[in-house]
Amino acid sequence: MFRVIITALLFAPSCFGEEAFADFADTEVGKRITKDITTVIDLEDSAQLEGFKNFEIVDDGKIVSFTDGSLEDAVKEAENKVPLVKPKIFNPLKDKSYMRCVKVKEIKNVYLCLFKNRKPMNWAFNGASEYIEGNLFLNHRQEFGNAPVYKYQNTENNNYKFSDLRSIVIGGYNKWSGHDIQGKDWIRFMNDYGKLSLKDKPKSRRGRAAMAIKRKFLYTFIAPKIEKYGENFVVLSAYVSSYDKKPKRYPSIIAHEALHAQFFMDKRIRQAVSAYMAKVQRENPEDIKLFVDEMVKIYFAISEDTYLRDNEWWAMMFDSDPESEKKKGKLKGRHALVPKHHDKMLKFIKNYNGWGLRPMQVKCERDKK
Prior knowledge:
Elements: H1 2-10, H2 18-25, H3 28-40, H4 46-54, E1 55-64, H5 71-81, E2 97-104, E3 110-115, H6 118-133, E4 141-142, E5 145-146, E6 178-182, H7 183-193, H8 205-229, E7 234-239, H9 250-265, H10 267-283, H11 285-295, H12 306-318, H13 322-327, H14 337-351
Helix pairs in contact: 2-3, 3-7, 4-8, 6-7, 6-8, 7-8, 9-12, 10-11, 10-12
């Protein structure tokens, strides 16, 4: 009975029909997470039911472009759907949250999920992001006590290392403004997520409601993408509102995540970036050291993982205009590397193997405001 109810709740025909669910359930990943659905989610727990009910996912296949301004309509829809609630007081038991997901025109099999409220976005994405990149912000108390330290190395050769995964049930840091995760990492994360035991369920009702947001996202959005594309897809997220008086900065957030998607999905970009980084290592090793020494404070896997290092360098280098950022006085530390390398790297990438490569640019009307 419970399984019938859960299947109806999570895999309604509009998002994951019974036939698709049956096919997916026979896969390696499907067997793992199907067991998780039927054993870990307790339908008698009103907190989890409230979390499911209050979190709305819209994924209707709408296609937008990073370059022609059509992204603006999707952002407005995400902004206007639910009330804006400050992260510190957001309560998944009573506050509505909303995810507007669109497909990206310029890069095949890339989805962009837009959130007005930041906490639900991080509850949905954080576990997978922290699993992949290794996040030092995990070293603080969360629902499960002191977060364990684990290491996960994400490389082209699929050299994955990790230990205790309890800290990824919800994800402990809720101030990220965006996420980027490729298909093969969603698969590995979900395989291990399904191994989590009942004892890892949060004790508080708010924690269980937050967990329900993650589970609804994984089982009704990510699982169908795995079933449809296998490893060949990327899901990005962006927080598109600001609760304070600072200017809305989501164009640069989306630009940053778009560059990550380009890196994931274009092998030529990865080769060109790797070649440039090798050049920097020979000519200016102190620049790479500065970058890694700062970034390791955020993603501890970056000290060993050149794939992650190159991806983050690439996104930092081209997610905003270096001259405008320089005028704002923000080019300190690793950001001071941008004016030094931006033009040189742009030229190098364009000329590499005669491919004429260019970093993805995001156009939004509010860029000018």
